[in-house]
Amino acid sequence: MSTSVTLQFPASTANLGPGFDSLGLALNLYLTLEITRSSDWKIECRSPLLSSLPTDETNLIYQVATLTAERYNAVLPPLHIVIDSEIPLARGLGSSAAAIAAGIEVANYFAQLELTLEEKLLIGNEIEGHPDNIGACIFGGLVAGVSIGEVVEVVQLPKPNIDIVVTIPPYEVKTEVARKVLPEQLTREEAVLGSAVANVLIAALLTENYELAGKMMEKDRFHEPHRLPLIPELTEARNFGKEAGAIATVISGAGPTILTFAPKGTGEYIASLFQRRFSHCTVKQLQIHCNNLEYNY
Ligand SMILES: Nc1ncnc2c1ncn2[C@@H]1O[C@H](COP(=O)(O)OP(=O)(O)OP(=O)(O)O)[C@@H](O)[C@H]1O
Ligand SMILES: N[C@@H](CCO)C(=O)O
């Protein structure tokens, strides 16, 4: 084990429309940590995207790292951590899941825990509360996950052969706030429809029927209809995407980022159209991040 290490953690999008708290897809924006053993704890944030983050013991990465070490009765030495990130905070691109995965990995490395991917997932799911973003961040690619009591299952699905465009509004939507607008209960009819739509979405992705997948992506019943008022750009972006030839346009995670699936080879063109139309937003074409967090130290 070296006294310093650089670790990276991917962004992720969750839900894909349907698949609330269950589907996640890892993306190629990264949280990067440069970590060195030190005489005292010191946390620094390098990216302007992180300017609002605390650098004391309330920092999420620090909290998760100490909690993970404590869980295994291990000692975490004082560290100097420099945090850099391309993942904007509270935008629905899994910044908190990346930070949680980072905290777990810091403990894994410096307290020599030798955690498996499944053990990292269990801890991450406990903290995040659902396995979609954290599952994608730890396993990479497209995942379907479920958390039942103490058990968490995550299955990695084949990488969809599509292009991905994200439209990131300039405002934050905290996940906590976006979950409060969701109804406590759904009628049986709504729940059955929501589950059926998610099942057909997965089947369509597995059979590479992206036209059908796109139809299902825009038919969620569990969260999208309730979160529409939080994201004023969404309805227009969905119609605009359709006219531009996109497969589907949905909320990324808890929002406000808008996720567009585009036919392979058209992402750059569709991103340029979205950037022109939604000029107050940051539009990026992203790739699927496929590696898992299995480090060989
Ligand atoms: N690199 C980081 N270091 C420390 N804390 C972080 C980091 N990134 C995110 N956080 C914490 O997570 C919060 C954002 O979490 P939130 O769940 O609201 O949004 P998100 O994870 O970006 O979006 P979503 O869960 O919808 O994908 C930040 O306000 C901050 O408290
Ligand atoms: N599935 C979560 C993702 C954000 O953490 C939600 O939509 O609230």
UniProtKB/TrEMBL annotation:
Keywords attached to this entry: Amino-acid biosynthesis, ATP-binding, Cytoplasm, Kinase, Nucleotide-binding, Threonine biosynthesis, Transferase
Q: Which InterPro entries match?
A: GHMP_kinase_C_dom (IPR013750), GHMP_kinase_C_sf (IPR036554), GHMP_kinase_N_dom (IPR006204), GHMP_knse_ATP-bd_CS (IPR006203), Homoserine_kinase (IPR000870), Ribosomal_Su5_D2-typ_SF (IPR020568), Ribsml_uS5_D2-typ_fold_subgr (IPR014721)
Sequence positions that bind ATP: 88-98
SUPFAM superfamilies registered for this protein in UniProt: GHMP Kinase, C-terminal domain, Ribosomal protein S5 domain 2-like
**Cross-referenced PANTHER family:** HOMOSERINE KINASE, HOMOSERINE/4-DIPHOSPHOCYTIDYL-2-C-METHYL-D-ERYTHRITOL KINASE
Question: What does the UniProt record say this protein does?
Answer: Catalyzes the ATP-dependent phosphorylation of L-homoserine to L-homoserine phosphate.
Record's family? Belongs to the GHMP kinase family. Homoserine kinase subfamily.
Name of this protein: Homoserine kinase
List the taxonomic lineage: Bacteria, Bacillati, Bacillota, Bacilli, Bacillales
Q: Which gene encodes it?
A: thrB
